[in-house]
Predict the structure.
Amino acid sequence: MNKQNIFIINFNLLYEILSEIKEILPFKIIKCENEDDFIKVIDSDIKNFLIIHQSNQILLLSKNENKKNFLHFNNFPLSLIKLVELINIKLIKIKFNHQSRVNVKGYELNLNSKFFSKGLLSLKLTEKEIELILYLNITKKESNVLDLQKNIWNYSSEMETHTVETHIHRLRKKISDKFNDKKFILTEKNGYFI
């Protein structure tokens, strides 16, 4: 299992304390002397990290995507056990939020809120609609009605039903009405695909 990263910026004392027990910590600590060092180290694709910064004047806070990744604690003194607990709680929240968002063909699908969005527009989806989008996105190939019946609805192949066609028709209509996108779910002779 990959450990989540904790960037400690301009907080040498905290880094030294945590460094002494790093073998037992469930996260990886990375020391940065200042914000410029952090910017050099961080990959723009990494979202699953936490920043602890000693200064109140943090340039990085101006970036909206990083606000949720900061740990602020003002109640000193703070026991080491309590500090590690605060870090772990924050990391769990970050990981949960990070894993809940899936990018599908230029859209963001939030698995927690069940919202499908692009830009400022968003659309509430049902559980089956989410399963259908995720399945078609993961398979990366055409899926026929029998395949979707089996893998999404757990129907046997002998069962006569129009469930798949009905759901796809309704989902296409919702996406078309909200986003004016008639090509999100496409059809070919072998089935449906995204």
Observations:
- The radius of gyration is 23 Å.
- The mean pLDDT is 85.
- The chain has two domains: 4-99, 102-193.
- The helical segments are 12-20, 35-41, 64-67, 80-99, 127-139, 145-152, 163-179.
